[in-house]
Amino acid sequence: MVFNYLKQIICLPLILPHLLVYCFINKTTKDKIKLDIEAFHNFLGGKCRADNYVRIFIQQLVLRKEFRNVFYMRTGPRISRLLNLFLHKNPWLAIQDNSDRFGGGFLVQHGNSTIVLANSIGENFWVNQNVTVGWTEKGCPTIGDNVRIGTGAVVLGPIHIGSNVNIGAGAIVLKDVPSNTTVVSPMARIVKKDGARVDLPL
Fold it and tell me: Is the sign of the CA dihedral 85, 1, 112, 28 positive or negative?
């Protein structure tokens, strides 16, 4: 805990450009960023109050590279390239610069090897590591509110993912998913045993 506070103090000169951008960004984008801050902070068991957004914003910038990726997505490509010179984002996490169509509360729990390219995403989107949300030659997914995508899942093409959807780890989704559903892939099965072909549940 003490180390984290010291790290925030040491990094303060690097944070100043981010604070300037946050102060002067338009209200719509700032409201989305506040929801992003809440999502990251609440995930760790915290609770945001109206008077501590800036403090938590600084904390997340210093301690969570994934939060930097989300914040840089909100600022647009030119400003994000400049800010990245001061505090580097996670290089293994790619989020499409489409903040006008991405709702607030965008949480990346672990960002390694994750790609998010979508036509639009609603509020309270949660994604884990090794996830691909992307395009085919026909287009990108459209994703509703309160969607969680688990580790290793793949969501591809011009499909529609409804609201309140949980896509389980390793699921491959190539068709529309209705709202208020949970999607999982088939469980692993034993297909070979003692050199012979079989088809057995684990």
Answer: negative
